[in-house]
Specification:
The protein has about 190 residues and is mostly beta strands. About 5% of the residues lie in helices and about 55% in strands. It is built from one helix and twelve strands. It has one helix spanning about 35; strands spanning about 10-20, 25, 30, 40-55, 60-75, 90-95, 100-105, 115-125, 135-140, 145-150, 160-170, 180-185. The strands form three sheets. Strands 1, 4, 5, 6, 7, 8, 11 and 12 form an eight-stranded antiparallel beta sheet that branches. A two-stranded antiparallel sheet has the order 2-3. A two-stranded antiparallel sheet has the order 9-10. Strand 4 (about 40-55) and strand 5 (about 60-75) form a beta hairpin. The longest helix has 5 residues, at about 35. It is elongated and about 70 Å long.
């Protein structure tokens, strides 16, 4: 809850995320045989988000979010092929700066009075600062290495400028229980 004198100033936030994906779907149908046969693709995605926010007044704030990404993709088919067995599984990697985001946010209701709940609306830009052409080496069945682009799922950016629409909201049922919700939509009109 805002306190008197908290209407202006700076705030720094650090967040880290980890995500592992290994399940394959065609539409809504999961291809369970991929895991059973050991041919699934496994992505490990790590993200460190650094966000600097300038509070302009009790309603408005401006934020700059800088992500550092580290991704590892383990597969058979991209290297020696699915028939190569476990020894044919190799990794490709990407590491670096992701797409930077700049947003302006406004509380809908007066934060000094809305202690039980409030909604914050935001508009912003996603800048194409992340490399969308990361390359790594792929190990072929004869042991040779071929330099090529890593899969789109572990690229550091998408190469386009995007427009951000965001809503954040919270509601406190009591001093010990509350809920928070976030809606985030990215419009990326590249090509």
């Amino acid at each position: 809850m805002p306190k008197p004198g908290d209407d202006k100033g700076w705030q720094f936030n650090f967040n880290n995320r980890y995500f592992k994906s290994y399940k394959h779907f065609v539409g809504t149908e999961e291809q369970k045989h991929r895991v059973d046969s050991g041919t699934e693709v496994i992505n490990h995605a790590f993200a460190w988000d650094f966000t600097l926010t300038k509070k302009m007044n009790k309603y408005w704030s401006l934020s700059l979010a800088v992500p550092i990404l580290s991704n590892v993709r383990s597969s058979l088919y991209e290297h020696a092929g699915n028939s190569a067995g476990p020894s044919g599984r190799h990794n490709t990697r990407s590491f670096g700066l992701g797409d930077v985001r700049v947003t302006a946010n406004r509380w809908i209701f007066d934060p000094a009075k809305a202690h039980i709940g409030n909604i914050q609306a935001g508009l912003g830009l996603k800048l194409p600062t992340g490399d969308y052409r990361v390359h790594d080496f792929f190990i072929k069945s004869d042991g040779s290495q071929v330099l090529g682009p890593v899969d789109q799922s572990i690229q550091l950016g998408d190469g386009g400028t995007g427009f951000i629409i965001e809503l954040n909201g919270y509601y406190n049922f009591s001093h010990n229980l509350g809920v928070y919700a976030n809606f985030y939509y990215l419009i990326n009109p590249r090509e």
